[in-house]
Amino acid sequence: MNTLIAVAATFALCFVLVPAFFAILRFFGVYAIVEERTCLVYVLFGKVVAILNEPGLNILLFTLGLKAPIVRWLGRVYTLDMRIDQQYLRSQPVNSEEGAPIGIGIWYEMFISDPLAYLFKNADPRGSLATNVSNSTVRCLSNLKLGDLLQNRHTMSQTVRAEVSPQSHEWGYKLGSVYIRKVHFRDSQMIKQIEEKVVNRLRQVTSSIKQDGANQVSIITSTAERQAAVEFARAAAMRPRIVGEALNQVAADPEVEAAMFEILETQKIIESKARITLIPQKSGILSELMVSCARSPEPQPSKSPTK
Hints:
Layout: H1 2-27, E1 31-34, E2 38-44, E3 47-52, E4 56-59, H2 60-63, H3 68-74, E5 76-81, E6 85-95, E7 101-112, H4 115-120, H5 125-141, H6 146-151, H7 153-169, E8 173-185, H8 188-251, H9 254-272, H10 285-295
Antiparallel strand pairs: 1-4, 2-3, 2-5, 6-7, 7-8
Helix pairs in contact: 5-7
């Protein structure tokens, strides 16, 4: 039982009484906790009495003195976020030197640099900064060449940042990085015309590439045919020389020459499919009869008399 009582008392002391005690101290302005990248501005009777921008625990009695207990009651405390913020402005209207309507999307970072100027010099510093960036974009980037607008984004970003920074700091905002994110045409008919020109140009380039390829193929084919014709002609010219050299070697031996020509003659006779009649060497009258039969004309068929 004593253990449970001790646990309950410890829980109530650590999680209820201590936080409530410190909350009462903060309510009466005894101390304040400043978070990282946060600024507290204390205003009493229309006058700024303290600015706390150092993170950590701050004893208000040492900073504000006797005003600390009443500043929460009769004054006002502004909590400002000092972290870097960012914004994107879409399709800012800009005309190129050629008269083309261009839309520019610009992205920029900003953060509070002067808490007093942010609170009291401008009722809407964020909106004023956006307007300033938009006006600077239109003023600095108008009448540029279309090629520069589409390519030199880094240079345009630096130009806009240099134009906006001095004015924005007067309102308590400081401009950080500026980047031209998107550049596009605002006229739909112009976009269609550019698309048609691009398509026609692609077709022209494709046709040119195909024609160039066909020409290269024709050149390669004609070159190969010319080289093949030269080689065939050279081979045809070499054949008679080779045959002549072989016949000279054969003619050196009369017996081989006679045998070769006899073989060739026999081969030609066989290939001609002619009718051959073999006659014995000593046939006598048989050979004369066969010659006379070969020379005699064939009998003509008789015609029947007409009636």
